[in-house]
Amino acid sequence: MSTTTEAPPKKKLSPRRRAQRIRWAQYALLAVVVLVIALVADWGQIQRTFFRTDLIKNTLTEGVGTALKNTVVYTAGAFVIGLVLGTVLALMRLSSVAPYRWIATVWIEFFRGLPAIIVFIAFGLLPLAFEGLVIPYDPYGTVWIALGLVASAYMAETIRAGIQAVPPGQVEAARSLGMPSGTATRKIVLPQAFRVITPPLTNELILLVKDSSLVYVLGLSATGYELTKYGRQLSSDNVNLTPLVVAGFCYLIITLPLSIIVRRMEARQKKER
Predict the structure, then answer these.
(1) Is 36 inside any structural domain?
(2) Which of 256, 257, 253, 261 lies closest to 65, judged by CA?
(3) How many CB atoms lie within 10 A of CB 45?
(4) What is the C-alpha separation between 203 and 158, in angstroms, rounded?
(5) CB of 26 closer than 8 Å to CB of 185
(6) pTM of the model
(7) What Å distances lie between residue 197 and 67, 153, 156, 159, 266, CA to CA?
(8) What CA–CA distance (Å, rounded) separates 117 from 146?
(9) Is residue 140 part of a domain?
(10) Domain-embedded: residue 151
(11) What is the DSSP letter of 13?
């Protein structure tokens, strides 16, 4: 009579071990893709097209400082207008007065629904539509207003969410102490709301930096160029993409520190919770 020995059952992988193997497989796949790209790519052509050293030097010395300054000024002015107007719209959206809510809703939906480039074109053509119209501090004033109006629609919704996040009991307590509604909103609600929404507002600022690249549709002179227009003009003159690459790195100089700030603020808020 023969006896058969059964093979011991295979030990199942734990979820942690399985996830670890999947992660290592992904790392290996990524390494293979990078290696293939490194072997196949024509690095000489890439250098000549995107990283010509002479064009990098020319781009950095011919006027990138002015373009960088213009980008920052355009963004800062639009952010201030968007923040002030967005706060007013958020309060109107939460108002008990129905016409205020209607006006704020129409404004927000209108400017959120329109592409920013159309708003820029419309404001660029305003002097043609209204003879004698002069926008102060042009071209800065035109950019500030056009970009600020678009930003206000998005900021209004962010600010409204922050206001609604403030516990209603705090407002009721202030009112019970005889504080007027407007004073309670200004001294209690808004400071707490802005503390909550600072990271999202910083993200809005980053988006404004990138949206400022649409200024090129206004047909500015060289002194009003922002980074994208400056990079495009030099790329067109030299039939090479190196100036645009340099302009892109200049955007990163602005946006990366802001992104780091956002992450730190979000991490701090999580710890405080």
Answers:
(1) no
(2) 253
(3) 9
(4) 11
(5) no
(6) 0.83
(7) 30, 15, 11, 7, 10
(8) 9
(9) yes
(10) yes
(11) P
Could you give the CA distance from residue 49 to residue 105 in angstroms, rounded to a whole number? Answer: 48
pLDDT in tens, the chain (273 residues): 555 556 566 567 677 888 888 889 899 999 999 999 888 888 888 888 899 999 999 988 888 889 999 999 999 999 999 999 999 999 999 988 899 999 999 999 999 998 888 998 888 888 777 777 777 887 888 889 999 999 999 999 999 999 888 887 777 777 777 777 777 778 888 888 888 888 889 889 999 999 888 888 887 777 788 898 899 889 988 889 999 999 999 999 999 998 888 888 878 877 766
Contacts of 90 (CB under 8 A, 6+ apart): 104, 155, 156, 157, 159, 160, 163
Instruction: Give dist(CA 49, CA 243) in Å, integer.
Output: 10
The reply to whether omega before 139 is within 30° of 0 (cis) is yes
* CA-CA-CA-CA torsion sign (182, 187, 193, 197): positive
Given a contact cutoff of 8 angstroms between Cβ atoms, the answer to whether 67 and 229 are in contact is yes
**Running DSSP on this structure, what letter comes out for residue 51?**
-
Residue 94 lies in a domain: yes
Q: What is the CATH number of the domain that holds 238?
A: 1.10.3720.10
Residue spans of alpha helices (H) in 41-97: 43-50, 53-62, 64-93
Number of domains in the chain: 1
Angle at which helices 140-165 and 64-93 pack, to 10 degrees? 40
Range(s) of the domain holding residue 169: 55-272
Q: Which two tokens stand for residue 113?
A: 């629904």
